[in-house]
Amino acid sequence: MEIFYLAIVLGLLIWIIILLLPSRPYSTEESLEIHSKKTINLAEVTVLIPARNEASTIVSSLSALKFNDPKLKIILVDDQSDDNTIELANSTEIENLKILHGRKLPPDWSGKLWALEQGRKYIDTDYLLLLDADIILKPGLIMKMLLVAKKNNIQLVSLMAHLRMRSFWEKLLMPAFVFFFKLMYPFDLSNTPSSKIAAAAGGCILIETKILKEIGGFKSIKNTLIDDCSLAKKVKQIGYKTWIGLTLSAISIRRYDRLSLVWKMISRTAYTQLNYSILLLFLCTIIMILAFVTPYIAILQMEPTTIGIGILTLCIQAICYFPILRYYSINPIYVLSLPLVAMFYLLFTLSSAYSYYFSKGPTWKERYYKKI
Fold it and tell me: Residue 292: pLDDT band by 50, 70, 90 thresholds?
């Protein structure tokens, strides 16, 4: 009984620490939105899009770029797609769209970074916007990112796109994806030049071309699966500023309406986040159980103090999760689902570790990455 009591107290302590952290990792204050549809000439920006079997999204993504600037330079690198991605891209008839046919993936490279490196060599503008093929940018957003970068002398501006949250599984699991990401990489600390924490969201990154060249291009992070945060870390390490925020103006249209799809997406890099460490996996499991399981067990006990600690823990937990739900206009009742969702994410992480040791390793876009 004493061990259980200690466990529920530790669970409460975890949430008190999260709530009182000066960086407020649960906050949604770090965000960037457009306030008008006015656009400017974006001649100093090139959009670089890696695409592998993106037939379901590429037309929407490219068409949206027209409304930011019809003459915007766009380079699409086809990463050996075996569907009609290229035919559909050509059908958009965008004036400055250049399509490159990607070469075979060499050893020790991730597919996305290899595609980006091939496209990087064709960039002749001061800024480069790295954009995933499933992201739709509202008119004016590129301009807003550019203005923020120039005004604040920031060399890398990154936005976490609004993930699709329509189906039951998306509403249940995707807000928590953002919540847990912000707990691991507090945006406030990441945006502080003196902090060693560095984060970026790979779906939408604006970076100065000369800075990318200075770090050695994408070759410097060629064997990383969490490429966005690795890129931000490289930029910060050589003394430049980075900024990451949320947005409702960059929208991901990739569907995650089945549990298996979310599972695949999270497990691809979950164990990588733990640096493939058994010890960190064990500690993560213990912390998740203390933070999310013990409060519910506590409120089922007969002892009033134990019940009170459990209720207080769940209340603080709800206070921390609520800002994310409010930001994405998700029913507040979903705060009650966080412990269940946390167990799903723990299962995804354990599955990721199992795949690493007993299977072919992380997989994405029909490629396995165990070696890298």
Answer: very high
